[in-house]
Amino acid sequence: MSAAGAMEIEDVAALRTEAVRILRENDRGGYTIPTDGLYPFQWNWDSAFCAMGIATYDVDRAWSELDYLYQGQWESGLLPHIVFHRPVDSYYPGPDVWGTAHTPPTSGISQPPLTATATLRILDRAAAAHANMSDAKDRAAALYPKILALHDWWERERDPDRTGIVAVLHPWETGADNSPVWDGPLKTTPATKTQFQRRDVALVDATMRPRQWEYERYIHLVELYRSLGWDGGKMWRETPFKVADVAMNAILMRDERDLLTLAESFGTPAERARLEERAERRQSGLDRLWHAQDGFYYSRDLVADEAIRVASHAGFLPLWGGVRNPDRAKQLADRLTQWLTLCRYGAPTMSPRDPEFDQKRYWRGPVWAIINFMLGHGAAEQGFADLADRLREDTRALMLRSGFCEYYDPLTGEGLGGGAFSWTAAAGLAWALD
Ligand code: DGY
After folding, report:
1. Cβ of 393 less than 6 Å from ligand 1
2. Is 209 in the pocket of ligand 1 (CB under 6 A)?
3. Is the CB of 287 under 6 A from ligand 1?
4. Which atom number of ligand 1 is nearest to the Cα of residue 43?
5. pLDDT (tens digit per residue) in 100-129
6. With helix as H, strand as E and coil as C, how does 27-74 read?
7. Cα–Cα nearest to 429, from 385, 391, 399
8. Which of 33, 35, 39, 92 to mutate to test the pocket of ligand 1 (most atoms within 8 A of CB)?
């Protein structure tokens, strides 16, 4: 082995140690915060990734991550995007702004569902570690009905007409808060009239965060839904922001399939039949988000009733969700490969050729390790091994260069946003550095 090769192995081992250290440092006694200061509570999809990372070294603690997250689940099945387990004042909007009626306090919207996927992966890690499988199965069995209730909630409240496509009612629900895909729908969303003090821009350079005009609309939507008592039916009818996000639908599709796998061990025959039927409906729904002329998957604005023809990372995520048409999968892989030729480190969340590309601003260009995790797995599963390798190598190179930041500049590799970031460390442990 060359000296450089040996050095990389040593560096990767040191990085893994650092990733575990970050996850332990961000542990608040059973659940993990994304990063100190900027995000001081438990976030929904962050925790699903954390659980997958933690399972590489502590299966018992990985279960606890999901158990704590589900402490926030509402009776309706909604799994909120933030659980405010204990008060911290470095974040806006806190529980008083959300004004929901749950103990522990929570937000009132959700986030991309990955808990069935995480449960399956923890089970795999438990088996690989020769852990006590009867305990692992008990933990998964206890989670199964809660995950099922979450999926039922997505269908009942976010696809009431059973089209097979769910909608989000807030950009925060997508996790990709300020993606250029939301620019159009947000322009027809009113701004809040309330004066508020953002905390994020005191902690992170404002050039890396959403802009003020977007925040004013984020807060308007929270205030509107609070005024509707967080009633799902009223929110659906009265919202000015209703978007079928392709990333959400692809991630839900994947989680639904993983839920079906869990149902084989923990569900009833009737539940399995219902899930199979729903998975088929969701798959057809995802198929309908394909734009044949542009050869890409787009989100759909359900208020304007039109496709949002803005190409972002989201359009590639059906690779993770499952693309059943091989020609479409190939078009996605070719296009993503082409995007990668435009930057030093992929995958950017917007093409560097797009006029909206902004290499430092959150979801308008930067690379996110968890997106690469999903795209890398999706590419490998759909038979694009070279693309999968490139995504993994780029992610590893970013971590070697800049550690475990929230996101990275695709042109320079500079680390951006919050530092010592949990889900980046987890994506390293579970995939890029594995
Ligand atoms: C934030 O506060 O930036 C979050 O993305 C909302 O969940």
Report:
1. no
2. no
3. no
4. 7
5. 999 999 999 999 999 999 999 999 999 999
6. ECCCCECCECCCECCEEHHHHHHHHHHHCCCCHHHHHHHHHHHHCCCC
7. 399
8. 39
- What would the mean pLDDT of 390-408 be, rounded to a whole number? 97
Atom of ligand 1 nearest to the CA of 175: 5
**Domain spans, the chain:** 3-432
10 Å Cβ neighbour count for 125?
A: 21
Nearest Cα residue to 426 out of 72, 117, 77: 117
The single-letter code of the amino acid at 373 is F
Using CA atoms, how far apart are residues 337 and 328, in angstroms rounded to an integer?
14
DSSP label at 235? H
pTM: 0.97
Phi, psi for 76 (deg, rounded to 5): -70, -15
For residue 221, report the distance from its CA to the centre of ligand 1, in Å.
Answer: 14
Q: Report the pLDDT value the prediction gives residue 8, as an integer from 0 to 100.
A: 74
396: Cβ below 6 Å to ligand 1? no
> Is 3-432 a CATH 3.40.50.150 domain?
no
Torsion (CA) 64, 70, 71, 76 in degrees, nearest 10: -170
- In this structure, of 56-60, 131-135, 278-282, the range with the lowest mean pLDDT score is 131-135
Catalytic residue among 25, 36, 67, 177: 177
Share of the chain above pLDDT 90, in %: 97
